[in-house]
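User: Quick sanity check before I run a bigger batch. Here is a single chain. Can you write out its predicted 3D structure?
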Amino acid sequence: MIDIKFIRENPKLVKDGASSKGVSINIDEILKKDEQYRECASKAQKLQEKKNALSGTLKGKPTPEQLLKGKEIKEALQKTEIDLKQCEDNLRMVLSQIPNLPKKDVKVGKDETENEVIKKYKEPPKFIFTPKDHLELGEKLDIIDVERASKVSGARFAYLKNDGVLLELALVNLAMKTLIKEGFVPVIPQTLIKKEAMQGLGYMENGGEEDMYHLEKDDLYLVATAEHSIVPMHMGEVFKKKDLPRRYVAFSSAFRREAGSYGKDTRGILRVHQFDKVEMVSYVPQGEDDKEHEYLLFWEEKLFQLLEIPYQVVKMCTGDLGFPAARKFDIEAWMPGQNKYREVTSVSTVTDFQARRLNIKYQDGSEKHYVNILNGTAFAIGRTIIAILENYQKEDGSVEIPKVLQKTLGKSVIKSIK
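Assistant: Done. Predicted structure follows.
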């Protein structure tokens, strides 16, 4: 969440920043809750000082008057501490509804239509035949089976089979080997997390909870990306500055209801309820997130360059930023089956927004500061497989394997068996 001191000093900036992300906040109510909390805290402090002063004057057996006075102060302090806890909860509740503010270099815009394409890599391939989409290719290659998955689990699920499985493992291996060599710590995390951890990330506000799978009996949430379980690993902890940046690369399954996408992208495996991802997470000192943001974007691009897949880099406008993000870039890969670029990765800085909510700090000399946190997709496996199938397809329905993956798969082509 945002520092209350910053809100006090910049109320209009905070209100306008939230508004640019499509979130309306009552800044006057927030400042009122803050004032109530500070008044209550001041009252509690004064009572505690009186209690300490009275204890310091007591020598030997206290008089009845002193005992009575001590009892009155104790009861008043107990009541004030209850009020203080309530004021603190009220303030925290309204603060949690404020999204992270966009960085100054982020364009103000209403939605994805105002995002900016800032870079392109490779020209889309030109086919002498009409390119097939990934589902038609995947079914003929016998590597994607949505029909049987639907029978077992319902819509928006899929089985990966045969060389589809080997292709996924090769992509995971490529991302892991590349990033581990760069000093990223590999992790396979759990996919169920507590509510307090999910709340700390800032994705449950503004309707975000509707897109999550919640196990009510256990009060646990299925993660929608490995970031959800990696970032809270260090909640309540203090890094040493010399140990930053701390970078993780994690592989896990992810789960999303896709609540706001009814009837959208239902064909194939582009938008499914369960998918696998390789995700990067970084913790850096205050003020170093801009540099780290470019660094993570570099590796996202590098991985798709290794696959030699055409893509464009898109910078999100304010209206297309998530609740905790201060700046975000997407990589959109060219997908011939749809004749358009589609999102395959994203990378965001959330500044100290999540660190404040999860209480993650670092020690710099005698001072402690909140870390800056960033997250970025190395590979969203399903969408990367789509990009490979559609860009590397041959007229006979076979698919060439990107050169960087051929050694791991032990073959250069996936051939149609249907």
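Residues 112-414 form a domain with the BirA Bifunctional Protein; domain 2 fold (CATH 3.30.930.10).

User: Great, the batch can go ahead then.
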